[in-house]
Design a protein that fits this description.
Elements lengths: L2 H12 L4 H42 L3 E5 L5 E2 L2 H8 L4 E16 L2 E10 L2 H5 L6 E4 L11 E5 H7 L10 E6 L14 E12 L8 E5 H8 L4 E2 L1 E6 L5 H12 L3 E5 H4 L1 H39 L1 H9 L4 H37 L20 H32 L3
Parallel strand pairs: 4-9, 6-8
Antiparallel strand pairs: 1-11, 1-12, 2-10, 3-4, 3-7, 3-11, 5-8, 6-9, 7-8
Helix pairs in contact: 1-11, 2-9, 2-11, 2-12, 9-11, 9-12, 10-12, 11-12
């Protein structure tokens, strides 16, 4: 062990016998420990929230979505579909027609987001885990068309899957005529569906009705046009890379975005909030570490004669500074290790037992999600080291100067 650390360790353990300096040192250790533990836990919660949102998006949103660069619809044909399917990493391509429509069930009406999908939608398996009642099917026996309905739509219209008499009626304004009265049912195209399944993900998807694309295309008058193409990526491939390959293949006529790009605003907001919280907690750790400054300052006053003796024995100012810097490092390191250990333990317990609940009946998860990322733990350790050096340097320098000019 280096001489400066040997002396610092001796000072650290011997001064515990002196009440006042010992109390300040312990307060400093406790403050650093609590601040470090809070940073580990809070950053892990933000990581968990980001991971949870990605899981939510994956339940409904496509891995890669292709939309027209201009307008809201585009012509599609087998050549275009095959061009997308030929890209490495593409597993399924689902054709989509999507727009707002008026839904009526019995005497109740609401505006819904009607999404028409082809047969590959069921092969994706995305909504399998979100179905809370009924089944995931677009056609029944005899070719009866079914609708897959969001929980919010079901509640708003009081839809019952057991009622085989009352259909779900979807209406969309007719195109090509300017003389129709929009208050008349003749102004709308009509589509009748039988409710076949209810899904729930979270409130942003609560206005969706999913139906066979052939019927939705006819209802909206798309005539071979599509709103988008949804691509499912093969396991082992990254959505970002596949989306770039598709974009290179299709050119400027289309906008190709992966799932993170589709939800970039929310993910960016989570990361910014995480950054600002990390900065705030860093300042809290700095405030807690101020006690190290006072502890070292008083220790420097107490050890003036010892420092003067070290100078007489040939010590240099650099050695004295290193002794007090090492003293501050020992205090901070003890607190940081305790805080890191406590934070990791709390996160592991939350993952296993879910002690802290979300407190929302409509949440997909019962407890707050947490996710430990070792980069965050490393970042927290680096922050503590930097703060320790900042608050320890001035007392260490003063101790070196005071001991050198002290008369013997």
């Amino acid at each position: 062990m280096h001489l400066s650390y040997r002396i610092a360790v001796r000072y650290f353990f011997s001064r515990n016998k002196r009440s006042f300096i010992s109390v300040i040192a312990r307060i400093a250790m406790a403050g650093v420990a609590v601040g470090t533990m809070a940073m580990v836990v809070v950053l892990s919660v933000f990581n968990g929230m980001e991971d949870l949102n990605r899981k939510i998006f994956k339940t409904f949103d496509a891995d890669v979505k292709i939309t027209p660069a201009e307008g809201k619809r585009f012509k599609t044909d087998n050549a275009l579909i095959q061009k997308v399917r030929s890209v490495e990493g593409v597993r399924l391509v689902t054709q989509v027609v999507e727009d707002n429509a008026l839904a009526q069930y019995g005497n109740q009406q609401i505006i819904v987001r009607l999404k028409g999908v082809d047969s590959t939608f069921q092969r994706q398996g995305q909504l399998d885990t979100a179905i809370i009642e009924g089944t995931l099917k677009l056609y029944g026996q005899g070719g009866t068309p079914y609708g897959i309905i969001a929980e919010g739509v079901r509640n708003a219209l009081s839809i019952s899957l057991e009622d085989i008499i009352t259909p779900l009626q979807l209406m969309y304004p007719k195109t090509g005529s300017k003389t129709l009265n929009l208050t008349s049912s003749e102004a709308f195209n009509h589509l009748l569906l039988r409710p076949g399944g209810i899904f729930f993900i979270e409130t942003r998807y609560d206005d969706y009705v999913i139906a066979p694309i052939a019927l939705v295309e006819k209802l909206m008058g798309y005539e071979g046009e599509r709103s988008s193409l949804e691509v499912q990526v093969m396991p082992g491939y990254k959505e970002g890379k596949v989306s770039r390959r598709i974009a290179d293949q299709l050119g400027d006529r289309f906008v190709v975005r992966d799932r993170d790009s589709l939800n970039s605003d929310l993910l960016r907001a989570i990361r910014l909030e995480k950054l600002f919280v990390a900065i705030t907690l860093s300042f809290i750790i700095l405030v807690a570490a101020i006690n190290i400054f006072f502890s070292l300052s008083m220790l420097a006053i107490e050890k003036k004669k010892d420092v003067s003796m070290l100078y007489a024995l040939g010590a240099t100012p650099g050695l004295i500074r290193r002794i007090f810097l090492a003293e501050g490092a020992i205090v901070a390191l003890s607190g940081a290790l305790a805080g890191l250990g406590g934070g990791i333990l709390l996160c592991v317990l939350q993952l296993k037992y879910g002690f802290v609940s979300m407190g929302m009946a409509t949440s997909l998860v019962d407890a707050y999600p947490v996710k430990l990322i070792w980069e965050d733990i490393l970042y927290t350790g680096v922050i503590v080291v930097i703060i320790t050096m900042l608050v320890s340097y001035i007392p260490a320098r003063r101790a070196a100067e005071a001991g050198r000019i002290l008369p013997t």
